[in-house]
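worker-3 :: picked PAN2-PAN3 deadenylation complex catalytic subunit PAN2
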Amino acid sequence: MAEWDEIGRIHNSKAILSQSITALAFDPYQELLWTGDDKGRVASFHGTGMHPYTSFRSHESQVRQTLVCDRGVISLSSGRVKMNNRRGLGEWTISNEDTADLHCMTYTVMPNSEILVAGRQPQMLVINVARGTIVKKVDAESEIVVMRKSKLVCCGATTGQVTLRDPKTFKIEHRVQAHTGTISDIDTVGNLLLTCGFSARNGTFIIDPLVKVYDIRTMRPLAPISFPSGPCFLRMHPKLSTTVFIVSHSGQFHVLDVVNTSDIHFYQANTTSYINAIDISSTGEMFAFGDADNFIHLWGDSKEPKMNEFSNPIELMSPHVLPPSVRIGENDSLALVGMPYYKEPLLSVWPSNKIFEVGIPPPKIDQDILSNIKTIDFVGFAPNNTNRRRNEIVKWSRKGHKPGQPKFRSEKEREMHRGRGAGAQEQNRLFDEEERNITGTKMPKYYQQVEIQYSRFGVDDFDFEYYNETQYGGLETHIANSYCNSLLQVLFFTPILREITKVHIGSVCPKENCLCCELGFLFRMLEDAKGSNCQATNFLKAFSKIPQASALSLFEPEEHDETISYAQLIQNFNRFILEQLHQECNTDNNQRLLKHLPLDEKNYSVIQQVFGMQMALVSRCQCQRETERMTIPFVVDLQKNKNVKGNTKGKEPAVRRFEDVLSGSICRETQTKAWCNQCQQYQPSLVKKIPKSLPPVLVINCGLGNAVPSELWRSVVNQKSWLPTRITMDLEGDDLKIETTLEGSDQETSTNGSPCHAKYELTAIITQIEPEKETPHITAFIRIPKKELEPTSKSEWYLFNDFLVKNVNEQEVFNFQGLWKVPVLLYFTRIDIDALVDISALPNEVDHSILFEDTSIAKKSIAPIPKPFQLLSLEETPQPGTLVAIDAEFVALSQEETEIRSDGTKSVIRPSRLSLARVSVLRGEGEKEGIPFIDDYIATSDPVVDYLTEYSGIKAGDLDPATSRHTLVPLKVAYKKLRLLLDLGCVFVGHGLKKDFRIINILVPPEQVIDTVEIFHIKNRQRKISLRFLAWCLLNQDIQTESHDSVEDARTALLLYKKYIQFKAEGIFEEILEEIYKEGKKHNWKPTPGMFPKPPNGPSSATFSLTSVTAHSLSTETYLNNDALSTSMTNKSEDGDRTELSDVVAPVTSQRTTTSPSWRSETAGESKISMPSASKSSHRSEQLMSLPDEERPKYDSSAGTSPLLLPTFD
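worker-3 :: C-alpha cells ->
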C-alpha cells in the first residue's frame, strides 16, 4: 500500500474568516476540486497547485453537498437544489414547498441524467438534470441524512437505520439497523457497505468507535473496524475495492484493508480546527480534506499524483492585455487616443440587404384628443388644441411624465410659455369619480404608494398640489423611517395631545432629542400648512438617535427588505411613542387634566391621563394565593379568544362580534409561571386582567395573522361593517360590557364623566395597503374634528397616504372586502372628551429666555473668535411685524444619487441630504439695524460627507464641540429660536428663503416672508437673479467672492429690500428691474469684480454705465469708522433723508450741464481719498455723467489697480 503525504494546503483568501468548508467533490471530467462553504458559496480550484478557478454565490445558507456531472456542478442546501456550469452561470434552480430540509443527493441508475435528493422531510425527489425539474416523488420512511449508490441506493437515516433501495423503482430491498443514533457517513463499493454513526449510551449520543461492515449480498455483518478517535467520514478507494479511508473530526485518518484489518496506516492532517468534508479523486491518487478554518488539505500517494486518468481541458480566460500608456493633457488632442486595429468587419457594418428605410415612427395621439374625439361612420374628428399644425410631426420632444403622475412645475410653465394652456390646467385623473370602488374589491389608484419625482430643479419642482386639494397638510416620504407618517397624522388630529405638545415646546426642556418637543414643532407646522406639504425631518432625526428605538428594531432598513412587516412596525412604534411621551412629560408636579374622573393620590402624567387604562393584574397560584398589582397600559392588543363571554347563551355565533373580541382582549386570562412567595418557587398561575377605569382615548392594536382572522374584518353583520363606529363600555365590578351604539339613536345619553361608563367614537384607522406584487405601505383614515372640518367636505373622513390627502366616504373607510387593505391600529375617542378634559390646566406661558441667552456647547479648548453678534435686550423683544433678516448655511450628509438615461440626460434618483450648519438673524430696523442677534453654528453627530465650504463657509471642525471656535448649539436650540421668532410675528427678509426654510424644516406663512429672489423677479421670466449679482448691480458690492457668509448674505438681502422700498416709493421699480435683466443678459449674469454698474435714480434713465472703482476701497471695513457711514453702510443727512453708499460714491442722473470739468486720474492706493458730502458728490457726479461718451476718461488697464476717478472743477 502506497504512503500518503500532504502535497498542498490552500486557504481561500477571498472568503470571510468566519466561513468554513462544508462540502468537497473532485471533478471526474476536469482537473478541478469543488468546494462549498457555510455561507452558500461554491468555488473551484485547478490542478495540484490549487489555483482558484471560479467562485460564485449559489445559496443563502450552508452548502451541504456538491455533485459533479458532465454539464456542471450541482449544489444542495437545506431549501434549494441548484446547478451551475463550470464558469458559474446558473442553469436551473429548484426551491419550493417540496424542498423543506434537504441533506443529501446521489445519482440514480442513469448517471449525469437523473439524481435522487432526500433529507429530513417526508418525500425524496427525483430530478431530471437536463431540464431541472422534479419528475417523481418517493415516500421516505424516515429522515435521510446521507446517501451512496453502487448496485443499490443506500440511505442512512437519523434513526441509525440504513435502507437499500432499487435504483430504478426506489423500492426498499433491505434494511440494516447499523447504529442506535444517527448515521454520520456511509460508503459502498461492490458488495461492501460501511457505516459510521452515533450510539446511545447512558441517555446521550456519542460517536460509535466502530465502523460497521456489511455484505449486501447476504446482508450479514462482517467484522467491524475499530477506530478509537471516532469515525466521522468514510471513503472507499475507487481502484482498490477493499481499501477504505476512515477520518475523524480531529484530522486523524486510517487507510486500511477491510479484509486484512491488521494492515493499518495511521496519518494526521495538519489542522487547528476540525474536518467538515472529505473526498477522493477518481484515480485514487489524491485525497482532500476541508476544515472549519476554510483550509483545503490535499494529500497524494506520489510526488506527481493525477486527479483523473483522462481530463477534458478547462476553459481559461483570455490573458489581460494592458492598454498602451498614453498621457493626455488639457491641451492635447483627443486624436492621440488611437483606434484599435482590426481585420474583420465591425458588427456595425450591416449588409445592404438588411438595411431598410422605415421613417420616423408615428407620434402617439394625445390622450386629451382621444377623450374628445367624435366618430362619424369610421372617421374620428377632434379639435386641435395644440400650437402645431394638423399632421405635423415633432422630431424631438422631452420625455413625458408617467401616467398617473403630475407634470413638474417647470414643465407646466414651459408649456404655458409655448402657448399650450393645457399645461396649466392638468386634469387630475387620480381622483376621478369613475376610479372609485367603494364597495368592491378593486384598489383605487389613490391608495398606491406615492413617490416624489425629482427634476434638475430639485424637489421644489414637484407638484404636491396634484395629490392634495384639501386644507390639511401631507407628509413627505423621501426621509428615512417615513413609515411613521400615518401615525403622526393621527396624533396631530388628537386635539388634546396636540395641545400638550404645543405647551411643552413653550417650556424649558433641556433634553436634546426630545420627541415631545419635535412633535410640538411638527404639529405647529401642520397647523400652518393650509394644504401645503410638510416634512417630519427633525422628528425622525431625533427618533433615529434614541437607543431604545434601535434596540426595539423600529428603524426601517436602508435596503429594501421584502420580509419586513410594516404593520408590526407601526404597531411597535405606536406603543413606543406613547411610552416615550409619558417619560418626557412626566414631572414631579403633573397637571390634572381630567375634571370628573376620580384619580387616586398618585401623580399621573398627562399622557397616562389621556391614553392610560388603569388595569389590575390578579395572579392566582395553585395554592389559591392571590397577588394584585396595578398597571397603566396605553394600548390594547386585539386578540380573538374562544372563552370570551358574550350574549350568545352558550352557543358559538356564526361571526363573533367586535365588541366580544374587544372585551375578551381587555379582560384576558392567561396561564403562566410566576413566583409565589408562599410556595417559594415558580408555580403555574392564572393571570387575569381587570380594568379599573376607561381612558379618554382608547388605542387598539388590531391582531395580526391568526390573532384576529381577516375573515372577521371582511364580514358584514346586519348590513353593517364588523367594525362599529361607536361603542359603549360599562365597568360593573370586575365585568366589562361593550355594546354598539348607533349615532343619533336613543341609546345616546350623557356619561357625566363617569370613569366606569363611556361612549367612544372611532376617530382613526391605520391600515396596511398590500398591492399585488408591490411593497406594502401604511395609510391612515382620520375623522377630522368638526371644529376643523372643511366647509365643502362631503364626509368627516379623510385618507392620508403620506402627501396624498383626500376626502373619502365613510362606506369606503369601513370596506375591507379587498385583500389589499388590512386594519392595523384603531383610535377610539370619548364623545364627551371636551367636557371631560380641562385644557386650561396646562400652562399657557411661553418661555422666551432662550432669545436673550448666549448658550454654546463648544468646549472652548481653542481660543474662540470674537462674537459677531449682539444679543437682544428685553426692550428689543420682537413684536408682530418686526423686521428681521435671515440666512442659513448647510452641509451635505449624503451625496446626490443620479443615473444617466439612454438618451444621455441625467435623472436624479435621490437628492443630496442637507443639514443645517449655521443660521444668522439680523435686526431689520431700529438703531441697531443690520447687527446680528443670532449667529449659531449647529452641532451634528451625523457624518458629514461634504462641508460645501465654497458655498457655506463651513469648515471641518466648525461643527465639532471639541474643536469649534464659534457659538455651537444643538439643532433643537437653533430651531426653537426660529420658532419663537415666527410665533412672535416676525417678518423674515432673505434671499431664497423657500429652500432655506424647507431644509430647516419650518413652515413660515407667506405673509411673514419677504424673499428678495421673488421681489427682483419678472414673473414671465425663468431666470431668478442671484444675491451676488443683485448686490453687484444695485449696491455696488462684491460679495461671496471666496465663500459665503450668512451674516453678509442676510445684511445684503436687507439692503436690497430697503432699495426695493425706495424704488417703489419713487415709482421706478419696474423700470429698474427691466434694466437689471438687460444688464444680467449683457454680462451673462456674472458680476465683474471691481467694475460696478450704477443703477438709475430717475424714471428717465434708460441705460447702465460702468464706473471704475477699487473694490478694496469700497469694502465695508474701510469705512466702518467714517462718520459719514454707519455699520449698515447707510447715512442720515441733516435733513433726515437716507443715502445709500452707492449714492455717495457714484449716483446716476440724466441731467446734463454745459460745465466742462478738468479730469485727473489718481490710483486709489497712491492718493489719499476723502469722502465728500452726499450733496457735493452728487453734484460732481451729475456733471461727470453729463459728458459725451467720447469725452469721458477711459480706464487704463496698465495701472495695476482700478483707478478711482476724481473730478476736479475750476
